[in-house]
Fold these 2 entries.
Entry 1:
Amino acid sequence: MSKFVNVYLNEIIDMLGKIRDEEMEAINEAATFLADAIESGNRIFAFGCSHSSLPVQDLVYRAGGLMLINPIYGPGIASLDTRPPTLGSDIEKLPGYAKLLLDNYPIQKGDVLIVVSVSGRNAVPIELAQIAQERGIKVIGVTSEAYTSAVKSRHESGKKMYEFADVVLDNKVDKGDAVLEDNRVPQKFIPASGVTSTALLQALVAATIEKVLQRGLTPPVYLAANVDGGAEYNKRLLEENKDRIFYY
C-alpha cells in the first residue's frame, strides 16, 4: 500500500476513534436538542460555508437520512461554484450577511440550528450563531477545538463561532486541517475535516433517531429512491411532514 494512503487512513481512523471516545456526551446533548424539537413540532436547520457546507449537504435529501434537516444556503458561499473561489472566502467574512440569511429563512424561537465552521473565525458563521442564540434558537456548533483555539477571530467581537453555541462538537482536526507531510512539500496536505465533520453529523442524526424512538415516536427517514416503492414512500412522508420541511 502507498505510504501516504496508509498514513492518511490511519489518521482518519484515529480521529474517528477520538470522536467516539471523547464526543459522546456532546453528541448526546445535541441529539436531545434535536429530539426535543422534533417532539415539540419545532424545526431543524443547518449551515456551513463553502467546504463546511458539504457535511451539511450530506444530511439533506439523503437515502437513510432524517427528512427534517433544512439546509440554509447562503448565495456565494453555499457551494464551490462561486468564481473565483476567493470571492466566496471574502463573502464569508462579511459582517451583516448572517442576519440577512436568518431574516429570509423560516427559522424561529424554539428551533435548532447546526453551524459548521472548522476554524470558527469568520464573520458569517460567528454572527449566524450569535444572532440565532439571541433569538431563542438552540445552536449546535461543529468546529475544531485545536484549529479555532490556534487562530484569531476575524469578527469585531473578537469571539469565535463556538462561543455562541449551546453545545460544541469537535471534529478533531488540527490547525490547517491537513494531515500528511513530506519534506518535499512546503506545507501539510490532504484535509480531514470533510470526513470527520460528516461523521460527526451523521452520528448526531443516529443519536437523534434513537432518542426519538425511545420517546415512542417514529422519525421520518428517507427510503432510497432507487429501491422499488421508494419514491412513493418518500412522497407520503414528505406530505405528512411538510410543515417542517422547507427545501423540497
Note: The chain has one domain: 3-244.
Entry 2:
Amino acid sequence: MAIHPSARVASTARIHPDADIGPGVEIADFVVVEDEVTIGANTRLEPHVVIKRWTTLGSDNKISTATVLGTDPLDKSFAGNRSYLRIGNGNTIREHYTISRGTELDSVTEIGDNNYIMTSGHIAHNCKIGSNNVICSCALIAGYVEVENWAFISGGVGVQQYSRVGSMVMIAGNSGVNVDAPPYFLYAGFRIEPKGVNVVGLRRAGLDTAQIRHLKQAFRVLYRSSLPLKDALERIEIDLLNEHTQHLIDFVRSSKRGISR
C-alpha cells in the first residue's frame, strides 16, 4: 500500500503506512487515515476528517470537516471484531457526520454511489444505503436499515433498526420510520403514514407521465380501497403491472416488519 505520487497530502495529516491513497486524492490539514484503509481516485478529505481502519472509499467522494468514517458500531454486543465500511463513488458527506462499520465478524456497512448526505447525522452498523439518495441534516439511521435508491430522507428523521425505505420515497421532516416504507410514495408523521405519491421525486428519477399515473392508481388501491393487503396487491398485479408496480409488490411481500398502511 502507498500514497500515489499525484495525491496531495497536507504536512499535518497523519496517514498510516498501510493505507492505500489513490491518484488525485486531496487530504487536508489534521486528517487521520488509519491502517487498512483504501481511498479511491480524486476523493477529497477536508480538515479534521478521520477515516478509521477497514474503510474503503471509492473515487470522487467529498468528505467534509470533522466527519468520522468507519467508527466502531454503537452496539453493546460489539466485541471488537474486524468488520468493514465500504463507500462507493461520487458521494458527498458533509460536516460532523459519522458512519459505523458492521457489528458481526466480517460484516459490512455499505453506501452506494452519488448520495448527498448532509450534516450532523449518523448511519449505523450494517446499513445498506443504495445510490442517488439524499439524507438531510440531523437524520439518524439505525442499525441494519436498508435504503434503496433515489430516496429523500428529510431533516430530523429517525429510522428504526431493521426498517426499509423504498426507492424514490420521500420521508417528511422529523418523522419516525418504525416500519417499512414502500417505494414511490410520500410519508409523514410521528409514526409514518402514507400521504400520496412522490411525484417530484419520480420525475427527478426520470419516470414519465404514464408510469407516474400507474403508481398513483397503485397508491389508491393499496391505501384507499379498503382492500385487505393481500387482495390489494393481487389487484395491482392484475390491473396495473409494470416494472415499477412489480417492484412495489415485491417490496411489500418481502416485508418482515410490516409496511406503513
Note: Residues 209-224 form the longest helix (16 residues).
